[in-house]
Every structure is written in C-alpha cells, then in structure tokens.
Amino acid sequence: MGRAARMAGAALALALGLSGAVTGTAGAATSYSFAVIGDVPYGSTQLGLFPKRIAQINADPNVKMVSHLGDIGSGNCSSSYYQKIKSNFDKFVDPLVYTPGDNEWADCHRASVGRGNPLDRLASVRSVFFPAPGRTLGQNAIPVSAQAGYKENVSFAAGGLTMATLHIVGSENDRKPWTGLGYTSPTEPQLAEEAARVEATIAQIRSTFAAAKSANSRAVVLLTQADMFAPGTQGSGYRRAFQNIVRALASEAALFQRPVFLFNGDSHGYVKDKPLTTTKWQTFYGLTGSVANLSRVTIEGASTVDEWVRVNVVSGPEVLQIQRVAYT
Predict the structure, then answer these.
(1) Which of 14, 57, 140, 219 could staple 259 via S-S, CB 3.0–4.6 A?
(2) Quick one: which H or E segment has residue 85?
(3) pLDDT tens digit sequence for 240-291
(4) d(Cα 261, Cα 220) in Å, to the nearest integer?
C-alpha cells in the first residue's frame, strides 16, 4: 500500500473513530456500520423524501460512512439537477462515497432527457460531484486515495476492510448505441471512453486487492452501479461490456481467499448471492472453477424504494452482516 493510500486510510480511521484500519491483523475487527443506498431519488416524490431519508441515516449512531451506488434519478440530465442532488448529498453528516450510474450520463442521449451528449454529461458529473479529487463528500469529508485520471474511483481502509469504488454502469457500460442522437451502433469516442474506463477499472480492482494483501485486511468491499449478474438471459453485448472486469474480479478474489463483497444497484430488486458459484455465470463469462468467497448484494432502488442497507462489520468469520432497514 502506497503512502497516499496509508494516509487516506489513517484519516478515514480517525474520522470513523476506528483503530487498526490500515495495518490490523486479519483476525482484528472494529465494530461499526456503513450505509449503502442507490438508484435514488427517482422522480419528484422520491426527491421530496430524500432529505428525510438522509436524516434517518444520519440519526443511526452506528453508521460511520455512507455509499451511494449511482443513478441519482431518471429523467433529468441537467447540470442544475446534478447540483440539486449534490446539495442533498451535502446533508449527510458522515463521509459519503459516490460512484456514478448510467442515468446521470450514459443514458442522457435519450429524447426524453434532452438528447445530451453522454460524454459531455460525464464531464459535468465529474465536475459537480468530484470537485476535490481525493476527498469524500458529506459534511465530514475526509481524504481517500483517488485513481489517477478517474477521480471517481477511490479506495480506502476502514476497520480491517479494504474498500473501493468502481465506475461501471448499466446500459452495457455505455456500449449501447446513443439512439437519441441518431446512432444505431456505438461511436468511436464512445467505445474509446468505455475501453479506457474498463482498463482503469481493472487496474483499480488489482490495486485494491494488492493493498488488501499488504494491509492483511479481513475482507475486500467493492462498490459499483452496474449489475453484472442481472436476472434474465443476457446477450453478447452484455458479455462484452463486463467480461474482462468479471474475469479480473474472479481471479483476484480467488487469489485473495478471504471474503470479498460486491455491492451494486442498477436492477433495483434486492438480491444477496454468490454468482460465481453458479454454472450459469461461470459459463457466461468463460470462467473455470467456482469463486465461493465472492458475495454480491444488489440493493433495492427506483421509484418504489422503501429501504436502505445497513452493513455491520462484525468480529466473526462472516465479517459483514447485511441488514435491510425500512425507511420511516
């Protein structure tokens, strides 16, 4: 683990009131919780409820950090809307880590949201939500380690865990044609952006596991938007979008051997499973062998969302306990 990552981990440990966040032994554990939300707020009703729901999470004394897994609503790709969501994010008392979703940039070509250029919208998302590279959002923002060239990809250590965000989005990771702009196949700039982002994502995965090994972490936690194991039959475009990422994740998780947790949004329905223990996904992505130490949690989201996920760091071998908490 490099000096910047160690400093970020130490700063986060201090902010969370944790010990052993960077160099704790595999058997060491610090009891705390973090919240995971995503695919919210969708529509005016959800937007109106968002401050109340933020307040509920703020009121939980065990929650020391929050993660938003992208998709900040559908139907609005304007920079002014991004600013409105950012102002809501600023209401979180605890450090907030956010990874973008497809709704806020990749899907902005659609006529219903103004036929924007997705790459222009991506630049705006980065400008609004990541004004200070290497810092979280939230009122008690703290330093984290940001990936060079991809300031939305951050990593940090906390309570015996090594955690990272990965900028992977739905709509086949922005490989689907921008039909709202009149295209029937992906454009060259679109494919170039996607290829570079996939390369950065794989580098982020590998560096995160390297840091976890160096720190003797109890587990790795990865946070992203795209559901790479979505229900239903998936086609070749879906495979092309995610295969190299899944293969890198499977390889690193198998070598790490300790628990690995992947949190994603995108498909809106709650799921907790071990996708790479199934023949379906092993065959689909061309993997050999099972990856039993990788657990995946898809959180609930979209216009009917009525819960958030509290993740409790515990001392036992399971490392994390997942709780679904109803909004009140």
Answers:
(1) 219
(2) helix 79-89
(3) 999 999 999 999 999 999 999 999 999 999 999 999 999 999 999 999 999 9
(4) 6
Q: How many domains is the chain built from?
A: 1
- Tell me, what CATH number does 69's domain have? 3.60.21.10
Asked if 187 and 174 touch (Cβ cutoff 8 Å), the reply is no
| Residue 49 belongs to domain spanning | 3-326
CA atoms within 13 A of residue 11's CA, in its CB half-sphere: 18
d(CA 233, CA 296): 19
Instruction: Name the nearest CA neighbour of 195 among 248, 241, 253.
Output: 241
CB 163 within 8 A of CB 13: no
- Among residues 148, 104, 112, the alpha carbon closest in space to that of 128 is found at 104
pTM of the predicted protein model: 0.93
Closest CA to 174 of 73, 105, 263: 105
- Give the pair of three-digit tokens for residue 106: 């990749």
